[in-house]
């Protein structure tokens, strides 16, 4: 835990996770969380084929699967953003269907997540055209305990593709 001023306390870091657009829509049979299953050690959200079918039918765009170049662009945008605001990235893993970032910053984690997604969208929009790249929301976990922080870093490190 870090004390930044006499009255503001921030955790050691945050584990930010967000998915790409329609990669794991509501009801998906692929592992995902939802509003009811989004806490540490919760079971994953159950599949619901009817809900997934409805979500895909009502999507405004095709599902996204980030290719190697897109993943590198996203990672670069996140690293550049963190450097600009002096956030400390402990580990980052951008995958074809979602991204993880463990970082320390004196910011609200939901604001961090949305700022990161916006920066990543900008670089992708510039090169590939404007479209939704990310699922709505995501996860922004506070990492108060050293053990939880270390477990998050280890988990994301295992997710990281060394080729990026």
Question: Describe it for me?
Answer:
The protein is α+β, with helices and mostly antiparallel strands and 164 residues long. Strands 4-5-3-6 form a four-stranded antiparallel β-sheet, with helices on both faces. A hairpin with a 5-residue loop joins strand 1 and strand 2. Helix 2 crosses helix 3. The longest helix is centred in the C-terminal third of the chain and has 20 residues.
List the helices and strands and how they pair.
Layout lengths: L1 E2 L5 E2 L2 E7 L29 H9 L10 H18 L2 E7 L3 E7 L4 H20 L10 E5 L2 H14 L5
Antiparallel strand pairs: 1-2, 3-5, 3-6, 4-5
By secondary-structure content and strand pairing, the structural class works out as alpha+beta
Q: How much is the radius of gyration in Å?
A: 16 Å
> Which strand-content bin applies to the residues?
15-25%
N-to-C SSE series?
Answer: EEEHHEEHEH
State the separation between the terminal residues, measured CA to CA: 31 Å
Number of helices: 4
Q: Overall 3D geometry?
A: globular
What percent of the residues sit in helical stretches (DSSP H or I)?
A: 25-40%
Which spans have pLDDT < 50 for at least 5 consecutive residues? Answer: none
**What's the mean pLDDT score?**
87
Sheet with the most strands? 4 strands, antiparallel
Number of strands: 6
Main sheet: which strands, in order across? 4-5-3-6
